[in-house]
Amino acid sequence: MHKFDKSCGLSQKQIGTIKYNVKNLINIQLPVLPELVETNLFFQGRDAWTYNWAIQNEKIPIESMHEILLEVVVKLKKEFHKHFDIKQYKFLYKVQLTENIYQPKISAIK
């Protein structure tokens, strides 16, 4: 596994775009905290989850149009453990960069 940062051969803009799009897909699948807690977090600009990103590709650096296997481990912060039994989720995505940097093709691997 390799870190998902500039050392993988992608630009900071590409990495940021991929993270944003993948985070949106993951947030749909995560359990929702009670409404009052979610509202407080929103107004504080915080999130109840931490994201750890890793690349599963053997070949690094990655060239601009190659497929990226991305593993994301999402952990619930300790202060919210009382709300859920499962405190960690693991997701695996296949990401293909396209000509348009803001529209990568992302598909979940089960």
Structure description:
- With 110 residues, the protein is an alpha+beta fold.
- The chain has one domain.
- The protein contains 2 helices and 5 strands; from the N terminus they run E-H-H-E-E-E-E.
- The chain has a 5-stranded antiparallel β-sheet with strand order 1-2-3-4-5.
- The protein starts with a strand and ends with a strand.
- The mean pLDDT is 88.
Contiguous runs where pLDDT drops below 50 for at least 5 residues: none
What is the count of structural domains? 1
Total of helices: 2
Q: Count of DSSP E strands?
A: 5
Largest sheet report: 5 strands, antiparallel
Order of the strands making up the biggest sheet: 1-2-3-4-5
> How large, in whole angstroms, is the Cα Rg?
15 Å
Question: What is the N-to-C order of secondary-structure elements (H for helix, E for strand)?
Answer: EHHEEEE
The fraction of residues assigned to DSSP E strands is: 25-35%
Percent in helix:
25-40%
Structural class comes to: alpha+beta
Distance between the termini: 18 Å
Shape: elongated
Overall mean pLDDT stands at 88
